[in-house]
Design goal:
The complex is a heterodimer of chains A (484) and B (287). Chain A is of the alpha/beta class. In chain A, 34% of the residues lie in helices and 15% in strands. Chain A is built from 17 helices and 16 strands. Chain A has a five-stranded parallel beta sheet, with helices on both faces. In chain B, α5 packs parallel to α6. Classes of the chains: A alpha/beta (484), B alpha/beta (287). Chains A and B meet through β5 and α13 of A and α1, β7, β14, α8 and α9 of B.
C-alpha cells in the first residue's frame, strides 16, 4: 500500500474502542474496553502525522518513543513495535489501560487541537497485548555485575525500577508484603479495568526474562528492616506506595457498613470477594451506597459496588438499589480520568456534586442507616488553584444510605519506616526524595511513586521508578556518590 | 508455601500447629501475630503467635474452629502447606520489670497469653500471677506450660467441670482486693466480651490493663482499615497501632458490633463447607 499523504491521514476518523455494552457489563467483572482489532489498530496508526518534533514523547512520563512504535505498527512490523516500546516501557499492556493519556501524550498530540488526538494509549495496549500473546522480544540483561539491589514494593514504581536495574546486570530482589505482586495494580484497580491476568503475565514475563526474585509475604519493617536490607544490598529502592487510608474526621465512621475504598477494593480485587463463597473472602454492599470522593479510586469503588448490586439482584430478584458518588466540589474539579467518569455514568452511578458529609448515622445495632450532608458552593481559589468549596448555611439534609465507602486519598504505609533513622519525611509522612533522581536522605536509599508524592497515578510512579533506576545504575558503576 | 510440621488436637475445637517459617521465627516476639491463608481461594486471617523457635525456624499457632477457614485448617495435616504465612505483624508486648502482674487467658486466648507470661517471667523482677479459664474442661489446654512460667496459677471453668467454677473476672477481683496497690499491670486475652469485663473489673482499681484485640483484617499492614477500633482518642488500626491496647480506653460496644458485620456470610461459608465435607464423606464411604 502506498504511503498516505498528510491530508489523507487527517481525513481518517479516530477509531472507536470496542466496549462491552453498559447494561451487560454492569452484571459482570469482565474487561469493559475490549481492545483494538488489528484492523482498527492499523487504521488508527495511519492517523499519526509523524511530527518532526513529537510533543507526545515529552508528554509521556517515561518517554515512550511514540512516533517510532506507531510507524512500526502501521508497517505491520509488530516485533519492531514491541522492541521500540520496551526501550522505555516494560509494562505496556498495563500502561495502555490505566494511564491518563488525555492529560499526557494525547493532550499534546498535534491532532488534539481539533479534539481528536491519535489514540496513543489504545495503540500502546495493542502492542502490549500482542507481546503478551506472542512473546517476540524478551527483555535482556547485561553480564552480571555482582551488585545487589533490594526493591521494596512490587507496584508500578518498584517493578519499573526493578526491570531497569536488572537490565544492567545487577541482581534484583523485590520484597512484597501481600501474597501476590503488583501492588495497586493487583489490589486496587478492578478486573474490569485491568484484568489480573494481564498484570500477572506482564510481571511474570519481565521477572523471568531478567531473573528478578520476587519474595511475597515479606513486610519490610517487620520481617527485616531497612537497615538490615542495607547491610545485605548495595542499594535499596522504596516503592511502598501510599496505602494507609484516610477517613473523614466526622462522627460515626466506625458503624458497620462504613469502610475505606482500600478495604472494599482489596476484598473485591485481591481476594475475589465478588466470587464469594467460591472464594472465602466476603464483600458486601447495601441497597444505597455512598462513595465519598471523586478520584479514580472512587470511580472504581462505585463501579464495583454497582456490579455487586446487579449480581445480587440477578440472584434474588430484588431491586438493584443505587450507588452515589458524593463529592464536595463540582463536576469541573473531578480528579478522575474522563473515561472513568464517563463509564461510571453510563453504567448508572449517580453523582451528587457540591455535597459534603458531616456525620454518619447508625441504628441501635451499630449499622449505618444514613449520612448527614451539607450543600457546598464554590468560593475563592485555594492553594491547589481550584475554587474552595464552602458550606451553604442551613442546607443540611440527610441521605438514606446503608454503605459508605471513603475514597479520600491515602498516605504512605508506615511499617517500612521502622528502624530507619536518617530517612527524612515530610509532614504528610511522605519520603523526602530528589524528584530528578529519587535519592532519599539516607545513604544508598532511593524512593519513588506514591510513597514520595502521595497518591498519584500508575505512570507517574513508573516514571519515578525509571529515574531512580538510572541514578542507581550510575551509582553502582561508581559514577556518582551523592552521599559522599 | 509454608509447611505444617506438627499438629496437635488440644480439644474438640482447639488445634495447635507448628509451621515452618524461619524468617518469621527469626523476628517473632511475644504479642505479635501472623496472617494466614490456606490456599488460592482462601481468606487472610490473623492468628496470634503462641510460640516460636528461632533455631528450629518454626512458629506455633493455636486456633479455634469457629469459621470456615479455621474448620478447613483443622483438616490439614503435617506435610500439608499453607499458601500464606506473613509476619511477624503488630507491635510486640512491652516487656519490662513491672513488679506484680496478672496474665489472664480465656479459651483460645490461653495460647497468646503464654508467650507474654513467659517473657515477663524471663525478664526477671516480675511476679507473674496467671488466671486461665474456659467454658468447660475440654476447652482448656496448656495448664502445665502456664504453671511453669507463673508464680501462681488459677484455673477456672464456667461450668465447674475443672478447677474453680467461675468466670476469670471472679478470681481477678479477689487478687485485686487481696493485693491492693501491689498489682502493676494486667494482660487479658480471650473473647472480646471477656476482655471487656476484665477491663471493667480492673478499672476501679486503676490498674493498667492491656488487651490484645482480634478484629477482621485483610492485609495486616495498615492498608485496609477494616481492623479499626475506637479508643478515647479516636480510631486506631489494630494491625499497626496494636494489637495491644489499653482496655480502659476501648469502645467495646463498637468492637463487638463490628465483629458481627459479616455474620451472615460467615454462616453461609460454614454451611457450604459442612455440605462439602458431608459429600466427601459420602463419596469416600461409597468408594
Amino acid at each position: 500500500m502506498a504511503a498516505l499523504t498528510q491530508r489523507e491521514r487527517l481525513k481518517i476518523a479516530r477509531q472507536k474502542m470496542p466496549e462491552q455494552d453498559p447494561v451487560v457489563r454492569g452484571g459482570n467483572f469482565d474487561e469493559v474496553a475490549l481492545g483494538f482489532t488489528e484492523e482498527l489498530a492499523r487504521q488508527e496508526a495511519e492517523r499519526c502525522l509523524q511530527c518532526v518534533i513529537p510533543h507526545c514523547v515529552e508528554g509521556c512520563p517515561v518517554g515512550v518513543l511514540i512516533p517510532q512504535f506507531i510507524r512500526a505498527l502501521r508497517a505491520g512490523d509488530m516485533e519492531e513495535a514491541v522492541r521500540v516500546m520496551k526501550v522505555k516501557n516494560s509494562l505496556p499492556a498495563i500502561c495502555g489501560r490505566v494511564c491518563p493519556q488525555e492529560v499526557q501524550c494525547e493532550q499534546v498530540c498535534v491532532l488534539a487541537k481539533k479534539g481528536k488526538p491519535v489514540a496513543i494509549g489504545r495503540l500502546e495496549r495493542f502492542v502490549g497485548d500482542y507481546e503478551l500473546a506472542h512473546r517476540t522480544c524478551p527483555l535482556e540483561s547485561k553480564p552480571k555485575t555482582g551488585k545487589r539491589v533490594a526493591i521494596v514494593g512490587s507496584g508500578p514504581a518498584g517493578l519499573t525500577c526493578a526491570v531497569d536495574v536488572a537490565r544492567e546486570g545487577h541482581e534484583v530482589v523485590i520484597f512484597e508484603s501481600l501474597h501476590v505482586p503488583g501492588g495497586v495494580l493487583t489490589y486496587g484497580i478492578p478486573e474490569f479495568r485491568l484484568p489480573k491476568q494481564v498484570v500477572n503475565a506482564e510481571i511474570e514475563y519481565a521477572a523471568e526474562c531478567l531473573g528478578i526474585d520476587i519474595r511475597v509475604d515479606h513486610v519490610i519493617g517487620r520481617i527485616a528492616t531497612l537497615k538490615e536490607l542495607l547491610s545485605e544490598f548495595d542499594a535499596v529502592f522504596l516503592g511502598t506506595g501510599a496505602g494507609l487510608p484516610s477517613f473523614l474526621r466526622i462522627p460515626g465512621i466506625n458503624y458497620n457498613g462504613v469502610m475505606s475504598a482500600n478495604e472494599f477494593l482489596t476484598r473485591v480485587n485481591l481476594m475475589k470477594g465478588y466470587l464469594f463463597p467460591k472464594y472465602d473472602t466476603p464483600v458486601k454492599v447495601g441497597k444505597r451506597v455512598a462513595v465519598v470522593g471523586a478520584g479514580n479510586v472512587a470511580m472504581d469503588a462505585a463501579r464495583c459496588s454497582l456490579r455487586l448490586q446487579v449480581l445480587r439482584a440477578q440472584q434474588d430478584g430484588s431491586e438493584r438499589g443505587e450507588v452515589h458518588i458524593v463529592y464536595r466540589r463540582s463536576r469541573a474539579e473531578v480528579p478522575a480520568r474522563a473515561e472513568e467518569v464517563h463509564h461510571a455514568e453510563e453504567e448508572g452511578v449517580i453523582f451528587d456534586f457540591l455535597t459534603n458529609p458531616t456525620e454518619i448515622l447508625g441504628d441501635e445495632h451499630g449499622n449505618v442507616v444514613g449520612m448527614r450532608c451539607i450543600r457546598m458552593e464554590l468560593g475563592e481559589l485555594d492553594a491547589s488553584g481550584r475554587r474552595r468549596p464552602v458550606p451553604i448555611e442551613g442546607s443540611e439534609f440527610e441521605m438514606a444510605v446503608d454503605t459508605v465507602i471513603f475514597a479520600l486519598g491515602t498516605s504512605p504505609n508506615p511499617l517500612v519506616f521502622v528502624d530507619a533513622e536518617g530517612l527524612e519525611r515530610s509532614k504528610w509522612g511522605t519520603v523526602v526524595a530528589d524528584p530528578e533522581t529519587g535519592r532519599a536522605t539516607m545513604p544508598r536509599v532511593w524512593a519513588g511513586g506514591d510513597v514520595v508524592t502521595g497518591a498519584a497515578t500508575v505512570v507517574s510512579a513508573m516514571g519515578a521508578g525509571k529515574r531512580a533506576a538510572l541514578d542507581i545504575n550510575a551509582f553502582l558503576r561508581g559514577e556518582v556518590d551523592p552521599w559522599a | 508455601m509454608y509447611k505444617i510440621l506438627y499438629k496437635e488436637t488440644l480439644s474438640d475445637v482447639n488445634k495447635l500447629m507448628v509451621v515452618e517459617a524461619p524468617e518469621v521465627a527469626a523476628k517473632a516476639r511475644a504479642g505479635q501475630f501472623v496472617i494466614v491463608r490456606i490456599d488460592e481461594h482462601g481468606e487472610r486471617i490473623p492468628l496470634t503467635i503462641a510460640d516460636y523457635d528461632r533455631e528450629a525456624g518454626t512458629i506455633t499457632i493455636i486456633f479455634q474452629e469457629v469459621g470456615k477457614t479455621t474448620m478447613q485448617m483443622g483438616t490439614l495435616h503435617p506435610g500439608d502447606s499453607l499458601a500464606t504465612f506473613t509476619g511477624p505483624l503488630g507491635n510486640p508486648t512491652e516487656i519490662e520489670q513491672y513488679g506484680t502482674v496478672v496474665c489472664v487467658g480465656g479459651g483460645v486466648g490461653i495460647a497468646p497469653i503464654y508467650p507474654i507470661a513467659r517473657a515477663l517471667k524471663e525478664e526477671g523482677g516480675n511476679t507473674v500471677l496467671s488466671i486461665i479459664g474456659a467454658r468447660n474442661e475440654s476447652l482448656l489446654f496448656w495448664e502445665d506450660k502456664m504453671r511453669a512460667v507463673s508464680d501462681e496459677l488459677i484455673v477456672c471453668t464456667d461450668d465447674g467441670s475443672y478447677g474453680r467454677k467461675a468466670l476469670v473476672t471472679e478470681p481477678l477481683k479477689e487478687l485485686l482486693e487481696a493485693r491492693k496497690g501491689e498489682i502493676r499491670r494486667v494482660w487479658a486475652i480471650g473473647p472480646a466480651i471477656m476482655m471487656k469485663f476484665v477491663s471493667l473489673t480492673t478499672e476501679p482499681y486503676h490498674v493498667p490493663t492491656i488487651v490484645s484485640l482480634n478484629t477482621i483484617m485483610i492485609d495486616g499492614t495498615g492498608m485496609c482499615g477494616g481492623c479499626r477500633v475506637l479508643l478515647d482518642e479516636g480510631a486506631r488500626f489494630v494491625c499497626v497501632d496494636g494489637p495491644e491496647f489499653d482496655g480502659h480506653k476501648v469502645d467495646w460496644g463498637n468492637l463487638l458490633a463490628r465483629q458481627q458485620f459479616y455474620r451472615e456470610e460467615e454462616q453461609l461459608a460454614v454451611r457450604e463447607w459442612e455440605h462439602h465435607c458431608r459429600l466427601d464423606a459420602v463419596l469416600e464411604g461409597g468408594a
